[in-house]
Amino acid sequence: ADEGMTLLMVTHEMAFARRVAHRVVFMHAGRIPELGPAASLFAAPRTAEAACGLAGARSALLGFVGDGAPRVAGSPDSAAARERLARILGSMGLEVGRTAIRLDRRGGPLDLENLVVRVPGRRPGPARVALVAHTDSAPGAPGASDDGAGVACAVEAARCLLTDPPEHDVLLVLPDGEERGLLGAQAFVAN
User: Fold this and answer.
1) Whole-model pTM?
2) 99: exposed, middle or buried (C-beta count within 10 Å: 0-12, 13-18, 19+)?
3) Do residues 185 and 128 touch, judged by C-beta distance below 8 A?
């Protein structure tokens, strides 16, 4: 931008956008309720949609990430984060499906758990869209951006879809074991 170039970026990483953006376009339900200088939009959003969206995503992220302990696949911290996530989704009136997965690895068995949530649409039938975000993090990292932010976005998408249902059902697929080789996602696709 310093050389006259325009950069258009789509991101869910609000801290990054706050640091580098001159202007922000906030989208909600396919509309643009607010746009303006990044500093003022993040500090004092003028519209209820932007204020609610920013607060909701932050709340979902903090609720899922918890104390920031790494959510390494198969660990108690990973299981605790999935419990928090299941409570958040359950409090929205959504039924959380759980699929336990046991894999035999060289270092011994690895227990994973995928969460799957169906957000109802207006017409019965199969889901036409799946939103996917993995629940585990790399060792030594709190996983706020990889992929806590993706999980928070999926939760907020579900919240929006509950207030304005799509035509067809939408699945939230929240697999475990991504950092160890897409293990939960592979199990979901296989079953």
Assistant:
1) 0.73
2) middle
3) no
SS (H, E, C) the chain: CCCCCCCCCCCCCHHHHHHHCCEEEEEECCEEEEEEEHHHHHHCCCCHHHHHHHHHHHHHHHHHHCCCCCCCCCCHHHHHHHHHHHHHHHHCCCCEEEEEEEEEECCEEEEEEEEEEEECCCCCCCCCEEEECCCCCCCCCCCHHHHHHHHHHHHHHHHHHHHCCCCCCEEEEECCCHHHCCHHHHHHHHC
How high does pLDDT run on average in the chain?
83
Distance CA 113, CA 83 (A): 11
What lies within 8 Å, CB to CB, of 22 at 6+ separation is 1, 37, 38
Q: What is the pLDDT of residues 70-87, one digit of tens each?
A: 899 999 999 999 999 999
Q: What pLDDT score does 1 carry?
A: 41
Looking at the chain, the whole-number percentage of residues with pLDDT higher than 90 is: 29
Encoded tokens for 132: 């996917």
Both tokens assigned to 57: 């995503």
Identity (one letter) of the amino acid at 167? E
Mean pLDDT, residues 113-136 taken together = 91
Higher pLDDT, 186 or 19: 186
